[in-house]
Amino acid sequence: MELSHRDITYCKNVGAKRADILRKELGVNTALDLIRQYPYKYIDRSRFYRIAELDDEDTYVQIIGEVTEWHTIGIGKAQRLSATFFDGTHQCELVWFRGVQYVKLQRGVKYLLFGKPSRFQHVYNFVHPELTPMSKVTPEMTQGLEPYYNTTETMKKHGINSKAMRTMIAGLLPELKAGVPDTIGADILQRYRLMSLTEALVNVHFPKDTPSMQNARARLKFEELFYIQLQILRQMKRREQNPGFAMPMVGSRFHGLYKSLPFDLTGAQKRVIHEIHDDLKSGRQMNRLLQGDVGSGKTLVALMCCLLAVDNGYQACIMAPTEILANQHYETLKAFLAPLGDAVHIALLTGSTTPKNRVPIHNGLMNGTIHILIGTHALLEDNVQWQNLGFVVIDEQHRFGVAQRAKLWTKNQLPPHILVMTATPIPRTLAMTVYGDLQVSIIDELPPGRKPVQTIHYSIQRRAQVYAFLRKQIQEGRQVYVVYPLIKENEKLDLQDLQNGFNELCEAFPEYKISMVHGQMKAADKDLQMQRFASGETQILVATTVIEVGVNVPNATVMMIQNAERFGLSQLHQLRGRVGRGGDQSYCLLLTDLELSKDTRKRMDIMVATNDGFRIAEADLQLRGAGDLEGTQQSGIPFDLKIANLSTDGQLLNLARQAAMEILDKDPLLEDEMNRMYKRQLDFRRVEQSYNWGEIS
Ligand code: ADP
Ligand code: MG
What's the CA gap between 624 and 207, in Å, rounded? Predict the structure, then answer.
């Protein structure tokens, strides 16, 4: 029987009880499912170490030597056995806490020591090492790479550890070697020089040597990425058939704004506007992601594209994630559009728009006299009806759900063109997966004349020095942000921190005025405080991350971040983007504890080292993994990738996407006899639908 149909219960070394646990813990139902559990690491058993060579605490090693001395400490359950191991030149310590009575040591016998060292005061020690007399070491034991498997607590409790996994998989080896049907066509295997599935599965578990292990893993990673890409690209192909509003004209409003700008557009801005205009002309619906670092001028690009729509007789809207941002967009747009006089009508609709003020807005949208509406979630309310909404800009998309977006248009209409803007640069590999079915435009150039923000990392012990620096900046007429973390789980505590911080700053700077904003405040109070800071009435703004996105006060030159260790890299980068918006040199001060974890130290170092949002995003991906990054959870793509890693397998991802594209270019619906297998696999893998921007209407 095919391995894919063999119930796991009836496999060698398994049995009913283990089968039950494997099903529950790993979702393993068949023999093939078990074989598809890949090792997460390998230990090279052909390599022997000397104690003097040890320097990494994280990897398993084996050493040959003798036990020269041992003694037990304590009695009964608390007993512990400690031994000295000597490799001929150096010594290390071996320790057992459990099963001490079973450890039999002999002097003058050569042992093979196997375990994971850790260092304590310059001495390496091994806790619960494997110690095998050399006379009992078989050649197989020290041959090649030993695979290690992930197991859960429950599995371990029932004796299914990594070794047991290995034994169970080994039991299937003869059948596996007889061959399993491949999931990738022979032509692709050949062109991309990939192992067959059978060969890859054998070698991922029992590699002959390092190169065959690596080739096996590459093939399995390719397969995983290939099917995700095939799924995404098939969706994209389907959607490319969707009709959309045609907006071929470049009209008077667009030209009017362009001529009135006090500066030139950057090359990147021009290129992106062209890319979008090409989509608008095409007669198909646009779904595009616009990426650009903070301050790269996305808002203006969005506005110019809205004007393209308006010039073609359509309405447009811009959705912002917060009221502050919506307000600010509204003000910014109004200023840009002032030279155009009466030619463009814009309106603002948020949760705080009064019922009375809503009436003319609702009317204006329905009869087409409002051209561009800016707002928050309020845009999505049922009573907001459009005459002909043709273009939608979504700022910071990860805060909007798919269902919410779908409310923007009615079933009997064509869906509007959609431009999603994000100021959090997304690593390329992630963009190709999470947003793989969107076209991507990138603004990779900042307007000229910006001075890069200087970032400095301080420990809180140096607060006095930091305050002196703030004072000097304020004396020069500048303004300062002080940001505190706000994490939902203990909001109360965080607000307390914020309040204490505010009080402390009031004491430290009695001569200056200080504003405070946080998410729990009434919108009107928040706005008032923000306005006071924006107008220069207050010199310091104490805030939580509500100011993370978009807030624009060019005179503010210092962003001081308290407990910077509690922020993610992208968030820190966003916060830093709030300064450096005027002509003055700006600073970002990261305050942390003196004692930092390795990860935190790395994050601070990266922030200090670079202002490049894409580099920061790559680093974030490496440190946190794809599943934890913003935007990935909502994507519907299974980010618990089994073997591929988006931070290290970019190359393979490119190849996999290319291969999937080649197939779909010839056969978009996978109808050819040759491609049936791919279609079946897609169904079988049931890769969840990722965002389907075009079909959510
Ligand atoms: P983003 O939204 O990408 O963070 P903004 O649109 O807020 O960036 O732009 C930041 C600032 O730069 C704004 O004050 C904007 O008016 C200005 N700006 C935009 N484009 C240019 C340009 N080409 N040259 C000079 N300044 C620009
Ligand atoms: Mg912006």
Answer: 29
